[in-house]
Design brief:
- By secondary structure, this protein is an alpha/beta fold.
- Strands 1-2-3-4-5-6-7-8 form an 8-stranded parallel beta barrel, surrounded by 4 helices.
- It is 39% helix and 17% strand.
- The protein is built from 11 helices and 8 strands.
Length: 247
């Protein structure tokens, strides 16, 4: 089964109306591979602006949401609000949410369930820290994270799994294509055993962690790497090269 290549841009806490407007103009006018699904993760305050300016063929994601629809949760946004501004995706479980803001697997699972129940598609992030890789427990960590997400998913067509080794995010270190493929292959096998063979064959498992124009082609050639979640490079014109990694 062919899985449509997926490239997400995570802008994190970067940009302003001027710079993001220029980036959107670049993306709107660039020649992008039509066989790639592109989704850009905007800061919450710019979601409405970005969705209104971005070409309809490009998706927009929130970078986080809460686990209920409304209420006394100062500073949070809900899937209902995200949908209300025309945005259909959310990034959940990013390592910065886990390790900077202390979000637990359980909370990420609850957020995933609520986002999916309310019609959002989810880019669900998993990945090990450097000490975990060096201790040889990469699989244990990512399988445990994946299980909490899987337990909260009914429709896998609405979910993209993003494997992001934490030691490679923003460090300039990239997992080698072989390292990425090895984990993606094991994740797909886990999904086959614990969810179903059909879902294992169809779910997109994308790689994140210092993806650049120079590393993307070889990573994209790996059989179980179905795309990327791109951080810093998604704010540059280089993002177009990454989207077109298979061209």
């Amino acid at each position: 089964m062919s899985r449509k290549f997926f490239v997400g841009g995570n802008w994190k806490m970067n940009g302003d109306k001027k710079s993001l407007g220029e980036l959107i103009q670049t993306l709107n006018t660039a020649k992008l591979d039509a066989n790639v699904e592109v989704v850009c993760g905007s800061p919450a305050i710019y979601l409405d602006f970005v969705r209104s300016k971005m070409d309809a063929k490009l998706g927009v994601a929130a970078q986080n949401c809460y686990k209920v629809a409304k209420g006394a949760f100062t500073g949070e946004i809900s899937p209902a609000m995200i949908k209300d501004v025309g945005v259909n995706w959310v990034i959940l479980g990013h390592s910065e949410r886990r390790h900077v803001f202390g979000e637990s697997d359980e909370l990420i699972g609850q957020k995933t369930a609520h986002a999916l129940e309310n019609g959002l598609c989810v880019i669900a992030c998993i990945g090990e820290k450097l000490d975990e890789r060096e201790a040889g427990i990469t699989e244990k960590v990512v399988f445990a994270q994946t299980k909490v997400i899987a337990d909260n998913v009914k429709d896998w067509s609405k979910v993209v799994l993003a494997y992001e080794p934490v030691w490679a995010i923003g460090t300039g270190k990239t997992a080698s294509p072989a390292q990425a493929q090895e984990v993606h292959d094991k994740l797909r096998a886990w999904v086959k055993t614990n969810v179903s063979e059909a879902v294992a064959n169809s779910v997109r498992i994308i790689y994140g962690g210092s993806v650049t124009g120079s590393t993307c082609k070889e990573l994209a050639s790996q059989k179980d790497v179905d795309g990327f979640l791109v951080g810093g490079a998604s704010l540059k014109a280089e993002f177009v090269e990454i989207i077109n990694a298979n061209v």
